[in-house]
Amino acid sequence: MTSPTKLSHIVLRTGRFQQMRDWYLNVLGATVSYDNGEVCFLAYDDEHHRIGIVNTGASEQPGPKTRGLEHVAFTYADLGGLLDTYERLDRAGITPFWSVNHGPTTSLYYRDPDGNHIELLVDNFARLEDAARFMKSEVFDVNPIGVDIEPRELLGRLRAGERPSELARAHTKAEARGFETVPEEFFR
Fold first, then answer.
1. Residue 125 burial (CB count, 10 A)
2. Helix ranges, 2-127 (H)
3. Nearest to 17 by CA among 1, 41, 33
4. Which single residue of 130, 146, 172, 179 could bond 125 by disulfide (Cβ 3.0 to 4.6 Å)?
5. How far is CA 91 from the centre of its chain?
6. What is the tens place of the pLDDT at every residue in 173-186?
7. Alpha carbons 56 and 133: distance in angstroms, whole number
8. What pLDDT digit, counting tens, does each position of 90-108 carry?
9. Cα 188 to Cα 185: distance, rounded to the nearest angstrom
């Protein structure tokens, strides 16, 4: 069986075309590949577009118990990049509704103008094998949700000289944590 080589792009339907376009340009540091007012394509790396936005006039938001996509995640190269983005967005009034060390990742969750969940993250393991091993560990089995973090504190510690590898590493909290402990806002 042949598997894909990468995830190419996502496309979002909206009734807030300009707001959504501007939000993704700002949050991802993206550029416009194409925009005719009805559809736009945005890029932030070597792909011609990673985000598509279609102006459908859609206004209804699915509820927490409906089927659909939960969130889309974007990986940063290092903790400094993730925390610089956090600080830049915070100055623009865009704040995460949940910040968590899941174990394999250190993650900040945001909501776009349509309420879609967007995860900005950094991998906590340099090697895929180590992340896979952690995900099979007892610590992860007992606590697959992770531990809440404070990004402003991490940023301060990073700027004070703590090594990124010490700040972005798998949690060791083996206390049981289930979905009932996830902030309620995650399910809206």
1. 18
2. 17-28, 79-91
3. 41
4. 130
5. 18
6. 767 777 778 887 77
7. 43
8. 999 999 999 999 999 999 9
9. 5
